[in-house]
Design goal:
- 13% of the residues lie in helices and 48% in strands.
- Strand 10 (126-133) and strand 11 form a beta hairpin.
- It has one helix and eleven strands; from the N terminus they run αβββββββββββ.
- The protein has 165 residues and is mainly β.
């Protein structure tokens, strides 16, 4: 391989690895693995956003009690279900993380509602979020703001509907 070709290959490999590292980040607190904290970009004037990630509980049952971030006035844990054509969303006091189970926060299911956004979330941005668990304690994660992959895109839903509390 010529030096120029080798340099291009190394640069391409480094860029690929950096992209993978940025998109597939994970954390651990106690017996809970937290995979790929992310949020979707929001439009100017939009005051709510969604936070998503996957929790893998490798120990005893635990619960996500709360989350906080400087980018929003508050963070709420929500569940979302469909009853026929009616979307039912409700705020939870805590998110149950059963022993040995995986719980995925994703559009159309459990998610973190970022309420009172202080500025739009822009693709490529990151922000810190503190997660507080009943047993595992607290951990600060970095949330990537990213567009959903086209093949995996979930339908967006508005948050102007009535919440069930």
């Amino acid at each position: 391989m010529h030096t120029a070709s080798l340099r291009r290959w190394l640069a391409g490999t480094a860029l690929t690895l950096a992209t993978l590292a940025a998109s597939a980040h994970s954390y651990k607190v106690g017996s809970i693995d937290i995979d790929h904290p992310n949020a979707r970009p929001t439009a100017a004037g939009q005051t709510v956003g969604g936070g998503f990630m996957t929790f893998v509980n490798k120990g005893a049952a635990d619960r996500l009690l709360s989350a906080t971030t400087a980018v929003a006035a508050s963070v709420q844990v929500h569940s979302m279900t469909m009853d026929g054509n009616v979307m039912k969303m409700r705020q939870l006091d805590a998110l149950e993380l059963p022993a040995g189970q995986t719980v995925e926060l994703k559009p159309g299911a459990y998610h973190l509602m970022l309420v009172g956004l202080k500025a739009p979330l822009k693709s490529g941005d990151t922000f810190a979020m503190t997660l507080k668990f009943e047993k595992a304690g607290k951990v600060v994660v970095t949330v990537n703001v990213e567009q959903p992959e086209p093949a995996k895109a979930e339908p967006q839903h508005e948050h102007d509907h009535e919440h069930m509390h």
